Amino acid sequence: MADSIEQAVARRRTFAIIAHPDAGKTTLTEKLLLFGGAIQLAGEVKAKKDKIQTRSDWMKIERERGISVVTSVMTFEYGDNVFNLLDTPGHEDFADDTYRTLSAVDSAVMVIDAAKGIEPRTLKLFEVCRLRDIPIVTFVNKMDREARNTFEILDEIEEKLALDTAPITWPIGQGKTFSGTYHLAQNAIRHGDAETERTKVNGPDSNRVAGLLPENERETFIEEMELAREACRPFDLDAFREGHLTPVFFGSALRNFGVRDLIEALGDWAPPPRAQEADSRTVEATEPAMSAFVFKIQANMDPNHRDRIAFVRVCSGELKRGMKAKLVRTGKPMSLSAPQFFFARSRITADEAYAGDVVGIPNHGTLRIGDTLTEGEEFLFRGVPNFAPEILRRVRLGDPMKAKKLKDALQQMAEEGVVQLFSPEDGSPAIVGVVGALQIDVLRERLNIEYGLPVEFEMARFSVCRWISADTKAELERFVESHRGDIARDLDNDPVFLAPHEFGLNYEADRWKQIRFAAIKDYQ
Ligand code: GDP
Q1: Which among 1, 266, 280, 401 counts the fewest CB atoms within 10 Å?
Q2: 454-467 residue pLDDT tens
Q3: Domains contained in the chain, number
Q4: Could you tell me if the CB of 122 is within 6 A of ligand 1?
Q5: 26 within ligand 1 shell (Cβ under 6 A)
Q6: Is 358's pLDDT higher than 60?
Q7: 295-327 pLDDT per residue, tens
Q8: Are residues 320 and 285 in the same domain?
C-alpha cells in the first residue's frame, strides 16, 4: 500500500550533519547508512572522502562529478522513518554550497570531537542553522579516545553556542574504558559493538553497570549520574523544535557506539518536513499540489551538452515522473520527464517523492538556484540564502574576441552557484565573487576545460560587497546616483555596494542611515 501524503510526510526526516573537519562526519554518515541498511552507499561515502584529501584531487573530482551526485542525498530507512541525509561539502571554501543545503533540511546533527569541543567551523555552521532555527541534535564523538569531562563538554556547548543542553545518554567510561551509554530517563544501557536493544537496569549503581566499568571508575560514574540528574536540564521537545535546546548523545562512530541512540532520537523527535514560507503564503507539507525549490545545482560531466542536475527539495504534494510543473520565475511549463529519485538502494523503489525528499532534475540551464516549481500556482519560496562574497576579482581574458563567450560562461556558472557575478553600473568589466579561495581555482579550471577560455584573475579595487536596499525607491536611487562607480548589479539585477574595505563600508553606512547593507541575501 502506498502512503497517503500525510503518512509519507509524517515518516520523513530530512537532515544534514554539521561538523568541523575530522570530527567524524564521514564515519558517522557511513554508520547511519549501515544501520539504515544502505550498505552499498556507505562504501561510496568513504571513497569520495578519500579522493578529495588534496587540492589537486579536488580538481579531478570536480570533473568527475558523478560520485558527488550519488552522495549528495542519501536515503535510508530505520523503523518507520525515511531519512534523507543531505551531504555538505567538507572543504570550507565551499561553504556557500553548505549554507544552501542547510536551507533544504528540517534538522541537523552536530558532531563534536569529545577532546576538542566546539571548533571554529562547528560554530560557523551552527550560526547558519540558528538563522533558521533549525533544531540540532548533538553527537559527541570519539568517546573511545581521551575525552574531556562530560560536564565540561556540556558547559562548552551552552556557553559557546548559547544553546541549552539536555544530555539524553551518559557515557559509561571513557577512552579505553568507554563501553556503552546510559539512558538517563529510561534507566537503560546499551553496550558492546553490536548495540542492539537497550537493557533496563535498576540505576547507575546496578551490577550491570558496575560490570562494565573498572573498579576505580564506578564511584565516579555514580556520582556523576547523580549530579547530572540534579543539574542538567530535562529534554523539552518544544524547546528543541524551536532551536533553543539540543539533546546530547555520546558515542563513537568508529566503534558503533551511540549511533542507534542518535537515529532513534531523529526518528522520535526531529521534525517532519516543515511548512515553507513563500512570498504570498505559507505552504504546508501535506498540501496536495506539488511544490519544490532548487537549492543546489551540479554541472554534469559532458561539457558539450551543458547538462546540469538541479537538486530540488519537495515542499508539498507528490512529485511524479513525467508530471508537468511550472517554473514560477519564468512562468513557463517544464516537463519533469527524467527526475532522479535517490531511493534506488533502499527498500522502496519510488516513482514519486514527497515533502522532505530531494529529487535531481536534469536540465540544460533552465533551472537556477532558488527557483520555485509548482503545479501552476504563482508563489516563490524564500530562503535559499546568498552570502556576500569575501573574495572579489576581475576576470582578465587573453583573447578579447571571446568576451561574449566569457560573459555567457560566467552567467552559467553564476546560475549554478559556482560564483557570484556582479556587473558594475559604470560599464567596467564584470566582477566575480566567491566565498572561498578554492572556488576561484575551480572557476579557472572549468572556464578553461569546459569553455576553452583561459583566464587570469586580477585583484579588484574592492574587497567588500553588500546588497543594498531602502524603504523607498527614491532613497535607494539617491544612494546609487551618488556612488555610481561603486555600485554593481547581481544576477537578479539587484544592486550591491562595493567597498575597498570594511572601513569604507562602515563609513558609508554611518552617513546613509536610511540604506540597509546586507551580507546575506535570500535568493527570492
Ligand atoms: P570528517 O572529516 O568529519 O568526515 O571525519 P572522519 O569521519 O573522516 O574522521 C576523521 C578521523 O577520525 C578518521 O581517521 C576516523 O577514523 C577517526 N574517527 C572518526 N570517528 C571516530 C571515533 O568515534 N573514534 C575514534 N577513535 N576515531 C574516530
Answers
A1: 1
A2: 999 998 899 999 99
A3: 3
A4: no
A5: yes
A6: yes
A7: 998 875 555 666 788 999 999 999 998 999 999
A8: yes
